[in-house]
Amino acid sequence: MATNVNWEEKKVTREERGKFSGGQFRGCTLWFTGLSGAGKTTVAFALEKALNDLSVPCYGLDGDNCRNGLNKDLGFNKESRVENIRRVAEVANLFADSNQVSVCSFISPYKADRQVARDIHAKANVPFYEVHVATPLEICEARDSKGLYAKARSGIIPNFTGISAPYEAPDNAEIVVGNKGQPVDVIVSDIVKFLKEKGIVNGAPKVTELFVAEADKAAKTAAAAGYTKLEINKVSMQWLQVLAEGWASPLKGFMSEKQFLQCIHFNQIDGVNQSVPIVLPTDAAGKAAITGKDFITLVFEGKDIAILAAPEVYDHVKEERAARTFGLHYKGHPYVEKIFAAGDFLVGGELEVLEKITWGDGLDKYRKTPLELQAEFKRREADAVFAFQLRNPVHNGHALLMSDTHEKLRAEGFKKPTLLLHPLGGWTKDDDVPLDVRMQQHDCVLAEKVLDPEFTVLAIFPSPMIYAGPTEVQWHCKARMNAGATHYIVGRDPAGMAHPEEDKDMFLAHHGRNVLSWAPGLEAIKIVPFQFAAYDSKKVSTRPGNPLGAMNFYDASRADDFVKISGSKMRKFAREGVTPPDGYMCPTGWTVVANFYKEKAAKAAAAAAAAEPASKKARTA
After folding, report:
1. How many helices (H) and strands (E) does the chain have?
2. pLDDT band for position 452 (50/70/90)?
3. Is domain 214-353 classified as CATH 3.10.400.10?
4. pLDDT for 281-303, tens place per residue?
5. In this structure, are strands 345-353 and 253-254 parallel, antiparallel, or unpaired?
6. How far apart are the C-alpha atoms of 548 and 421, rounded to whole Å?
7. What are the φ and ψ backbone dihedral angles of 288, each rounded to 5 degrees?
8. Three-state SS string across 545-614, please?
């Protein structure tokens, strides 16, 4: 035994290692034990593949593989078996300490040896989970394609576990599988669910809300009243809500200059995807008022909203921000225009938000925070959550895509895939349909069961829209991950718009989808590619009361059968009182949209009439 040997502490912490795996340390060991032929290696390797697909760093250590190298000098007597397990346990512990999930598949027949493995991990404060693959002996023997059991029974193979050597089954394994004849995919799903509950595999990253604790609210509110105050506008208030509720977690406040530059140059902050800047503009007067203050209070419409600590004021490099976020800096772009109209300075600092943010517009019941949505998905026992971002009314082509995704997830083996129908609720450009109209229309879609309420959660995403294409779609996806989404439906030209000065779109239609598939920090979410759906004149609905069947995925081989109804054409129909083809949108939902545009047109006509010069009115009369 080696003497005079000391453990050297590393310079890299587990938290720092966790930055490269979704912002959290995931290292642990799953120790599979069971009889020969129980299916340990089959399940372990299938689990390794599943974890890899979820972007969880992992590595499988198998008994035969380790005896080909690390333990090739060991036999199968008791002493060798003990040393075999000890060595592997030490290796697994090192793998886990490096932020890997060690998936170990060993017969490990003795309780005492498995306890040694557990103790090695406990000493290093590394999670250790024993998985008993409890396939009965008769099944193991029946499926033995190598004839090992027969050789053991005839004495050809000595010391064979379960026949001529003992197997001591675990008394309190964390996971027991295989005892009911479950198929491999079900076993893997159950283990992944266990790991989610332990926080090793997350349906959602860790979310930190920025609200003041209830016990501190009175003292913090009193303190806020005495600090220097900085008035913020509605868009900044919407971004503050995004921060407070944890949509941008782990971001803890408006970005510092370092975070801002990391964001616009790298689309991430300290290894965590954050593609759009969340910043607080101010002018020279605001800068002068808050410079040197330890704390300031952010005020919206006369009400104290949040305390911002240690404010950092830095230059608002508007052209650089616009060029890096949008790929252009034309002021004809609606959000670029806002950037250039904002103050010349930005204020960064961590936030303490005094209370939950509400708007009193009748829609607050739909404003669910990431943690509230996670709880709702858990209540529904959702084993997959697929998110759909939208800023337009839902037509039946959208509904076809969402319903098709649900069916595909069911076919993959998910039992309760759940849709997060998540319309954007912050600022949008003037020609977009207002939020209250969209929510009323979405309620109609659910009431008519175009989308099944049993698998749909309708909620509002509080973020402003910035129309930044592939850059912004990363933000939309990352925020939904924080709410618990495991899958994200990406549309054609997501977050795009027409070029403000040229006759073309700002972004190529496929770039958003491709960038989202490759974006660092978003590997844990599965991207569901957009399929274009249009009205199929040859496909008659077979679903009474729900004409979804009239929509179909576009087939170029019979292009003449399809009617493409763009957003602009939809708005034109609504303004002019034209009814779209039957089955384009649920009837009550279309009525909501049409009434909005009729009222809008009537108000515009009345305003135009009121603006006519009196002399022209007299001549007309």
Report:
1. 22, 22
2. very high
3. yes
4. 999 999 999 999 999 999 999 99
5. antiparallel
6. 17
7. -60, -35
8. CCHHHHEEECCHHHHHHEECCCHHHHHHHHHHCCCCCCCCCCHHHHHHHHHHHHHHHHHHHHHHHHHCCH
Q: What phi and psi values does residue 34 have, to the nearest 5 degrees?
A: 165, 175
**Cα separation of 371 and 604, whole Å?**
42
3-state secondary structure at position 54? coil
Provide the annotated active-site residues.
108
Instruction: Supply 495's token pair.
Output: 């977050």
- Provide the residue count of the chain: 621
CATH class, 365-602 region: alpha beta
Q: From 247, 276, 278, 270, select the one nearest 485 (Cα to Cα).
A: 247
Predicted confidence band at 307 (pLDDT cuts at 50, 70, 90)? Answer: very high
What is the SS3 assignment for 11? coil
Q: Tokens 């250590």 — which residue?
A: 61
Cα of 296 vs its chain's centroid, Å:
33
Chain-centre distance of CA 119, in angstroms? 36
Identify the CA nearest to 120 among candidates 95, 154, 141: 95
DSSP secondary structure, 195-213, as one string: HHHTTSS-SS------BPP
DSSP 8-class letter at 214: G
Quote the pTM value.
0.78
Distance CA(552)–CA(561), nearest Å, equals: 10
Give pLDDT, residue 605: 85
Paired sense of beta strands 533-536 and 562-563, if any: antiparallel
Q: What is the mean pLDDT of the chain?
A: 89
Buried b (16+ CB within 10 A) or exposed e, 562-588: beebeeeebbebbeeeeebeebbbbee
Residue 308, strand partner residues: 296, 351
Ranges of CATH 3.10.400.10 domains, the chain:
214-353
Ramachandran assignment for 577, one of left (phi > 0), alpha (psi -120 to 50 degrees), beta (any other): left
The tokens of 214 are what? 């209830």
Sign of CA dihedral 508, 513, 517, 520: positive
Who wins on pLDDT, 5 or 82? 82
Close Cβ partners of 565 (under 8 Å, ≥ 6 residues apart): 395, 534, 535, 573, 580, 581, 584
Closest CA to 233 of 427, 49, 396: 427
For the chain, first and last CA: distance in Å? 110
- The class level of CATH for 22-197 reads alpha beta
CA–CA separation, 384 vs 416, rounded Å?
7
Collapsed DSSP state (helix, strand, coil) of residue 253: strand
Residues of the chain with CATH 3.40.50.620: 365-602
Domain with CATH 3.40.50.300 in the chain: 22-197
Q: What is the 3-state secondary structure (H, E, C) of 330-396?
A: CCCCHHHHHHHHCCCEEEEEEEEECCCCCCCCCCHHHCCCHHHHHHHHHHCCCCEEEEEEECCCCCH
Separation of alpha carbons 457 and 382, rounded Å: 11
Residue with tokens 């974006």: 519
